[in-house]
## 1
Amino acid sequence: MSSLSAVLRNDRSEILRMAALAEQFGAEAQLPEEDVMTLNLVLDEIVANVIENAYEDTGEHEILVSLTRDGDTLTVRVEDDGRAFDPLQVAPPDLDLPIEERPVGGLGIHIVRSVMDAVDYQRRDGRNILTMRKTIGRT
Amino acid sequence: MDIFQTTAEPGIVILTLSGKLDAETTPQFAEVINGTIDRGERRIILDMSALDYVSSVGLRALILGAKRLTPLGGRMVLSGPQDRILKLLEISGFTSIFTITATRDEAAEKLR
């Protein structure tokens, strides 16, 4: 089993540091290249979303990220103390709209739900806990 | 990220992207796309064959580019995305708003 735990601050510069951590974890946990990309994608979407939207104040907050490889299961857990936000309640985007009517954003959560096998959300003690799982090597 | 700009033939410009199109590099990409459109280019090939990673920030920039180009009568074709990026484009519903080809030549053919 390989795992990595990191504490990120709610600052955009942390997204780059997180990408480096994901690469490092990918190498240590011997993840296939496709899964490293998936991991990067998921962390990019979820952590950027927390940093940009979760906080109503301008103070410093901690975002806890843990990555685990156990056999052929990859688990990504992101925990924050921002406002309650259940990404599973976000309506899926309408992908049949023509370019003129296509909204520019709103793809992030949809992508996460598509590339991971399971996404679980809990609100506990004033914290959002998002746990995502994927079978390694499944495309 | 590196972006090379070449002209395939009169009226068709190729932007070759390599590396990552993510939160860090997308502003640079958006600047190049906007500059290309501002210069009057209307037929654009984005050669993605050397692109390793695209995040939703990068996808947003692609949509924005197409949204600018379409009302001007222009078109953007995505060529040669690696399988995992092609999958992401499919998940994101881009196959119905962009023409995606395996090679640059096919992309140029679509734009003639």
## 2
Amino acid sequence: MRLACVFAPLFPLAARLRSEPDLKGEAVVLVEGNGNAARVVAASRPARRAGVDAGMTLPQARAIVPKLLARARDRESERAAQEAMLEAADAFSPRVEDGGEGVMYLDLEGIPSASLRKDGERAFGRDLISAVEKTGLPARAGIASSKLAARVAAGLPDSPWVVPAGEEAEFLAPLPLARLSPEIEIAETLERWGLRSIGDFAKLPPGEVESRLGSLGRRLHASARGLDLRPLEPRLPALCLSEGLELEWPLVALEPFLFVGHAALERLAARLDGLGLACRRLELTMTLDPDGCDARAIALPAPTRDVKTLLTLVRLELEARPPGSPVVGFIFSAHPDQARRAQLALFGPPALSPDRLATTIARLAALLGADRVVSPRAADGHRPERYAFSGFEPPPPPEIARPLRGGRGLLAVRVLRPPVEIEVVESPGDPGGRPARVRSARGAAPEIAGSVRVAAGPWSMEEGWWSDAPAARDYWDVELSEGGLYRLYRDRASRAWFADGVYD
Amino acid sequence: MGASQALAIERLLAEGLASAGKKDGVLLSGLGARLRRASELPAPLEAPAALPTALAPLDRLLAGGLPRGRLVELSGPRSCGRFSLGIAALAAATSSGLAAALVDLGDHLDPQAAEGAGVDLRYLLWARPRRVREALAAAEMLLGAGFPLVVADLGLCARTRGTPDAAWMRLARSAAAQGAALLLSTPWRASGIAADAVVSASRAHPVWRGSGRAPRLLAGLASRLMLEKLGRATPGAAGALALSVPDVAPSPML
């Protein structure tokens, strides 16, 4: 079986630089530990050129490069970078194993692009490196028939390196035994036996090795001969995508948080884009100072990967409910869903772009509220103010444009929600309670006042007599002296008058 | 610009044109190359296609309907028929399969009545802002999303002075950029010079059935539409608008 190994050199540092791209090109070190005891784990190229190396203490490194930037290891950045690498590899092979710490293996069996193309596996390796580099990580690749050979080849310069099939043992033979990463006890034993290279070890008879070193020794020996006893273990795709950052200092204001959050959302959107998915639900988990965490879930009206929209929703959420403590870390998790697609019609009216529509609805929902950006629906009942709604998901437009129907010129009513309470002077001597003069309460909107020129009614309406909130009303259409044409009603239970519509 | 400056520019222009005439095929250079008489400016591209409202008086005034890529302002007092015109425009668009948006300041839409008037509610997006500012922002976003028709109804709100002219210009430009028809329905003239077409509706006359002591029945409403502005066309055209109450036989007066 042919395998490709992709390896991100200096992975913890690379992951950190991916989260903070502004640091690229600077002398940066990644440290573990606190204060003067902090030790350099990895150094960027400018720092290495100046003489800083892994293992130094931070004061030693700063003595060499006074303006050295130091960052702590960020497990969240590393996890997100590893996920991004794996997602990039998903576009090349359906079977990808997560090797951890910036390493992954791809099964190349049956991949036509690896076998049929000119320059075959090497070109495949180049494409793979290019795809991983697009996620913001440096990458090297090696292709061989065993994991160890592929991993070793990936570490060599002049990447991608291809080990021809069947030559894995020869390729590994001159390498030191340490490349096999044996357990300490086994390494000491092998040293006592006088073995120095993988080739020396591979020459030993397998049965003898197993009888002396056990199953662990048998596995090591197989690796030394270019064989994999453990098959490739494909990973299961993640249910949600996450990006986050552990901050160097606590953030108390919203704007700086949104600034760093914007970069994380951009990375998240790029990953969704790469998978052809969009975000249906966004979760934000904030680590608070000194302890505790705050988790939020933001439901989106339609799947989107528009960073501006997502950021606006996060802003509105945090403005409405601030976390209450300084934030020292955060994770955005996107629950993916299929982005909407539209089929264009040749002869029919154009359809709206589902992506743009989803983004617009999300932005409008953030501006107005989710229940104020809807598609209206007719509701059962008799109360004029009733309505129902659903999410706006228009059906595909007709394939052939429908002919325009002649307008019916119907008079519409502006419904007043809620109805405006009014004072009504009824016509004296009219047993039906015909309104003669109307005035709305001070400050009511819209203002309604005037004497009634013509009144038509009453028309009775009863609904929900069986319920807790029955409606029993007597309706009137009235024309006022100021020119307005209104729909008024008197509530039979309270005897109060209301205006619930304006003919317009 | 002073008269002397105008003369100088005119002279430059004449020189530039003259030199172009002498040296056939040689491009003008310098300032003359960038100057043209207004009469020589290219005529506006052919009139953009219009979205008919299926209401003959309004379509006649607007030369076929709501022009795409243009802001049409419809203003008028309470009960002049503005809302009915907006519903008619939405009905015409959605019934032919076009998506449309209603920005409804004041939350006035009656979905049942709109459906009865011919609006295909599945194609209608209903945005319900609370303030004028939100309404304008919503209309701009909806235009940007590609809706071919956006009806922005400012309801019965009182006149506000806080809306800058730039906001209306932005709306007009969004409509132009997307080639969408934008109908702005306002109780007072609002959009200033940003509107490409302005139609005002006069105070309406309700039409009642029955007289004397007999019970009355509202049959409809008669109003008058006046074209105040339409591109370079001469304003002043007018048309009678008659709207009838659903389920009531049209009155002979309508």
